[in-house]
Amino acid sequence: MINMSATDKIKLSNTIVTVGKFDGLHKGHEKLLSELAKKANGRRKVVLTFAAEPKDVLNNQTVKTIVTDEEKRLLCEKQGIDVYCSMPMTKEFLALEPDEFIKEFLKKKLGATAIVCGPDFSFGNKGAGNVDYLKENTEKYGYELYVIEKEKYQMALKDNSISILEYHIHEDRMIIDILDQSKKRVYDHYLDYVTSSKSTVFEEDKQKIVDLFTQKSKGPIIFREHQRNSKDYYVKSLDATTIYNSNHDPEIILATASDITHRWHEQNTLKQRAQRDSLTHLYNLEAGKYIVNEYIKHHPGQKNALIVLDIDHFKEVNDTYGHLSGNELLISLAKYLLFYTNQDDIVIRLGGDEFVIFVKNIQNDLNYLCKELMNHLDEITLSHNRLRFSMSMGIYAFNTSLTFDEAFKEADEALYHSKRNGRSQFTIKYQS
Q1: What 3-state DSSP class applies to 272?
Q2: What's the rounded Cα separation, in Å, for the pair 346 and 359?
Q3: Distance CA 291, CA 288 (A)
Q4: Residue 87 — φ and ψ, nearest 5°?
Q5: DSSP character for 260?
Q6: Which pLDDT does position 210 carry in this prediction?
Q7: What is the reported pTM?
Q8: Least buried of 21, 192, 296, 323, by fewest C-beta within 10 Å?
Q9: Segment 164-185, tens digit of pLDDT
Q10: How far is residue 281's CA from residue 98's CA, in Å, rounded to a whole number?
């Protein structure tokens, strides 16, 4: 699948395009992608969506998303999409007139000869463009238009298990499933109930619900709920809108709760794949760097250490025993590093034969840990009995709020000191 931005200079031709936020790919979205595949007829299948970046601003508010842009890309790839095009959600883009959007993006940029959309699709400045507008311009711009029938689209959305909730603020009274009398439930003293032991909501998620209905936070929120008489649990998305009375005081909060359990587990699997190195299943550099920076930021003044290591003369291992043996060594070393470090430490594969270990909250002598890592390499057993290897390490210990890159630079210098002095050794550098 081609991954591109709408700001790239790449231009496509003869494509079939669908446009949307695709925030989690619910059943309605899946219907659009299914129709995209059916109507492709040899054309490239393109999804144009909005980049899920935290700093994207719409009406001066941070855009909240259920999934990241990377997760959406992986989900679209799984659905057989050929081109994933991400559009930054900027005020300039939102100000485009419908005609400009069709001409500049759908036609010139994406080369659309066909468009697939839902019955309520809108686009352009203040949503001025809609399905009727697209129909009126099919001949002018030379594209086919396929609109999912409203009945089929709504049936797909109904599969999403959406519940409507009505919370009466002053009475602390919650009515769940207000549109379905057979499922309707009423809870008096609702906030007390949610925080009590009777509630099936996960203990660590209860405050999220309280904050939403006391207007201390805005939705959507994600919370988990135990299934009664089962070890399984539901994952739900909850969003809310406040309704004010004639005195402009908040009176009722209308909310929608969507069961996203299947999607949540699927996205968590995709997230793990996106964060992990495919060979060793350790954190990759991007994910590892983020985790380390977040930890340092939230634990100022704590003494931590960054260890950078690599295998001595690894190229010779590949040249002598082959790349499969080299890969076997990398996988075995990854498991070895996990075994000889604490469960809370972060082990990262940088790439090639380079690894990083972030040691949190150092309590013991670093020399002991380093000697343990260096002295037990013979415990690693490989298919080639004659394959012998060693590794070199550089360590930087610090207790101020450095970034990953700053600590890495110091540890990397210590690593090269070890290499210059004969390899198969470690060098510890302390923050001055």
Answers
A1: helix
A2: 7
A3: 5
A4: -115, 115
A5: -
A6: 94
A7: 0.46
A8: 323
A9: 788 999 999 998 875 556 677 8
A10: 46
